[in-house]
Amino acid sequence: MITYSRRSFRLYLANRQYVLAVPIYTLGLMLLLSILIVIVVGIATGFPVSKDFEEGFRANSGAILSLPGFLVSVGVLAATRNFAMALAFGSTRRHFWLGTTAGFVVTAAVTAAAAVLMLGLERLTGHWFVGAYAFDVAVLGNGNIAQTFSVTFVLALLSLTVGALFGTVLRAFGTKATAVLSIGVLLILFAAVALVVWKWSVVAPLLASWGAWATVIIGAAFLVLASIGSYAACRRATV
């Protein structure tokens, strides 16, 4: 089993530039945009930028908003483009899912490690010499290395797995089922947001006490559900 799963793992990593480097480039572009925003504001108001602006910039969510779009597409392509090739090489559906999931873990780990490295450089340079906050931000734990790595890792792995879920559902059940799944996911997200807003007085103190770990816990819960769904659909997928 390990041998066949390793084949799917190597197939996923065949284009390392795409599955390993591009997520890092994405974080780099987000960082560049953050720096440019501060430079523009500094030109308009003077350097150094105000403390109020810096504190507001600590709410920058670019690090978690820039990754999902691309990583979901990576997951979709891994579940559709590589599927037939893996089975042709002798892998079973289970081997393919295990090997591809292992590849997802590597992508998520490399992306999270890059985020931690950029966090270190950000703090070492006094926030890129201009007061730009891209990784030393609230959503990543305000400079906490463990939280930065964990949030980025779980978010990246969740995005890849959700993409694989949609790709395997498309393979197994076709476009109608994929559309139904999309609507279902949107409805679940809407219901979750509505519930949080409804019970905000209860939820807000809880989230505040957890900090960035709340994102890790919630993301991990969705990750488990997406993994179960993608595996179940993969068992039914056709070439």
From TrEMBL:
<feature type="transmembrane region" description="Helical">
    <location>
        <begin position="210"/>
        <end position="234"/>
    </location>
</feature>
<protein>
    <submittedName>
        <fullName>Uncharacterized protein</fullName>
    </submittedName>
</protein>
<feature type="transmembrane region" description="Helical">
    <location>
        <begin position="149"/>
        <end position="170"/>
    </location>
</feature>
<keyword id="KW-1133">Transmembrane helix</keyword>
<feature type="transmembrane region" description="Helical">
    <location>
        <begin position="20"/>
        <end position="43"/>
    </location>
</feature>
<feature type="transmembrane region" description="Helical">
    <location>
        <begin position="177"/>
        <end position="198"/>
    </location>
</feature>
<keyword id="KW-0812">Transmembrane</keyword>
<keyword id="KW-0472">Membrane</keyword>
<feature type="transmembrane region" description="Helical">
    <location>
        <begin position="96"/>
        <end position="121"/>
    </location>
</feature>
<feature type="transmembrane region" description="Helical">
    <location>
        <begin position="63"/>
        <end position="84"/>
    </location>
</feature>
